[in-house]
Amino acid sequence: MKIDVLTLFPEMYKGFISTSIMKSAIERKLANINVSNIRDYTDDKHKKVDDTPYGGGSGMVLMCQPIYDAVDALKKDNTKVILMTPQGIKYNQKIAYNLSKEEHLILVCGHYEGFDERIREICDMEISIGDYVLTGGEIPSMVVIDSVVRLLDGVIDEGSHLNDSFNDDMLDYPTYTKPRNYKGLEVPEVLLSGDHKKIEEWRKDEQIKRTEERRPDLLAKKYSLNRSKYTGEISEIEFEGYSLNPKNNAKRTDVITVKNLKIYDNDFVNTIAKRNIEKKLEQLLNLVMKVLETDDEDDDNLVLDEADRIKSLLLNEYARLVGSEYKEAIVKRIDYIIKEFKARKHFINTNVIENTGKSR
Asked: Are residues 295 and 234 in the same domain?
């Protein structure tokens, strides 16, 4: 992987890329990290790269020209340009994994009061490492580089990062080394047992406990924990996500084909489920209108069967996703549609008998 960094302070990276894992990855040619000074690309003879903001205000704003020209000089067909900004998407381990699959990254580091807004036009992605403001984008860019490079094949042992915190939306399990007893603090006996199955079970349990204690928000996205009312221990973990098989456009070659999608965000799942239900209700109404226009009484069963099918979905697949209040409201709507359908059919049949003397 090649990583280019655009910054006003390239000297900040000297220690970062010349020590530890970064140094090893570069020496083994697993990563190529280049740091460029934005001032080298300015067309101002005084190397000026910023100016006062239009409309007034404090601070200085980075100008378009140096950064546009720098990106243009470095960018290739396989490049992803990333703007380091507190307004970007919050960085996490999943983004790190995705970026580790890229061939070339350009990280643009801001400074001073910010960027000219038009610089966003040449960036593919904006990243923030947290809800706080730093002096510049240099330290956040180092965070991104470190988290991405360590995931590259051959940089570190794969098992080291597969068990990292935030993989599978949970924190890492506790680890111990020698001595077995330090100032009365003992290593858990199970880790000394040699029983690998029990050790794996213990680690999984500890992951859940630690995540629940320190970051319950991570578990809330994905799991429901059931505790024993007597011991307080976790007795069961229920998956709370929503799995679906999205329809892919076979004509599109510029997107990733997704065979199965699992959604863990409760609000988003709730919205998607409700949209699906509303779509099915619309289909039911269209079927009702179509059947009312026909003379075939056998089609009546199609309406009743479709109504029962939607009710069954509500009671089974969608029950835990939309809540009891919404579920009851939808059932009432279905019952009302069927009631009106039967009344309308009765009215039509009655008119036929009165006009022809024959029952339909």
From this structure: no
Whether the CB-CB separation of 83 and 66 falls below 8 Å is answered with no
Which residues does the annotation mark as catalytic? 86, 113, 150, 164
Domain range enclosing 207: 181-239
Question: Which domain-ending residue is among 95, 127, 159?
Answer: 159
Which of 159, 193, 213 terminates a domain? The answer is 159
Give pTM, 2 decimals: 0.60
pLDDT tens by residue, the chain, 360 residues? 999 999 999 999 999 999 999 999 999 999 999 999 999 999 999 999 999 999 988 889 999 999 999 999 999 999 999 999 999 999 999 899 999 999 999 999 988 778 999 999 999 999 999 999 899 999 999 999 999 999 999 999 876 555 565 556 788 899 999 999 999 999 999 999 999 999 999 998 898 888 888 887 777 655 555 555 555 555 555 555 666 666 666 565 556 666 666 666 677 777 888 888 999 999 999 988 888 887 666 678 888 888 998 888 888 778 777 888 888 899 999 999 999 988 888 887 777 666 665 555
Question: Residue 217 corresponds to which amino acid?
Answer: D
129 plus 21 within the same structural domain: yes
CB-neighbour burial class of residue 281 (10 A; exposed 0-12, middle 13-18, buried 19+): middle
**Domain holding 195: CATH number?**
1.10.1270
Cα–Cα distances (Å) from 252 to 126, 257, 261, in that order, read 25, 9, 18
In angstroms, rounded to a whole number, what is the distance separating the alpha carbons of residues 289 and 309?
18
32 and 125 share one domain: yes
DSSP 54: T
